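Async update (no meeting this week)

Hi team, since we skipped the sync, here's where things stand on the single-chain job. The sequence we agreed to prioritize is pasted below, unchanged from the tracker. I ran it this morning and attached the output directly underneath so nobody has to dig for it. Comments welcome in thread, and please keep replies under the output.
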Amino acid sequence: IMNAFYDGQYDVLLSTTIVESGLDIPTANTLIIHRADMFGLAQLYQLRGRVGRSKVRAYALFTLPANRKLTDTAERRLKVLQSLDTLGAGFQLASHDLDIRGAGNLLGEEQSGHIKEVGFELYQQMLEEAVAEVKDSGEVQDGGWSPQIAVGTAVMIPESYVPDLQLRMALYRRLGDLETTEEIDGFGAELIDRFGPLPEEVTHLLKIVFIKALCRRANVEKLDAGPKGVVIHFRKREFANPVGLVKFIGEQGSLAKIRADHSVVFIRDWPNAEKRLAGSAVVMTQLARLVDKAA
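Output:
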């Protein structure tokens, strides 16, 4: 279809924003962008540049929702784009975009972007990996891994419990440093003292933090618990005490087995999140003890 449009077999092309990526069709002279208020400034600038690539006068038309007030940010973006109508306006556009979105502070509290969608722990990990890559060091990549835990329940610090976003982020950061039962219990007691009784999501979160600490000790990169038991995946398919693991699984009888991919399955009856959390903690405690025996 694109080749046919380029060759002039079609007069109209209906497309997604994929056309912003370096498309060069000199005969295209009119562009209509639906709901321009939903796009970023750089996106709109790139899209507008897809027309007017020859000596023929071109037009870029931006449609907006009728009878609906634009957000302040969207209105600023469109006004900036309207004012940048000359060649070589890329630097001015970048400056305006920086002013609208904010630069943030790479190592501080103020950040630009949607950190809530990424999650603070993952953000920290990505930042550490990027810094290590620049330093040409593999130390962080090897030591900064984080186990993935899935138990089928919400684990978070709700906004209704701690309304301040910056404070919630700080609490999440502290959670990432907790290792022992004493530290986790102390953190929970502090939350109760400062904010009141723990919501169910926070109680589950503290249990997940404990399970994660056990997973790191046992080199478990992924734990997936459900109503019928749990599947455990070892990082790089390695376990510090393989002989002890085989013996332990043999003692479980038909309630445990090793898969071909070296993951371990424990058959259990865990109909709800509470049982899955408690049961996963028991299993991981047993695996962590096997590792300690091999040390």
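Quick observations from my side:
The chain has two domains: 1-84, 146-293.
The mean pLDDT is 83.
Reply here if anything looks off.
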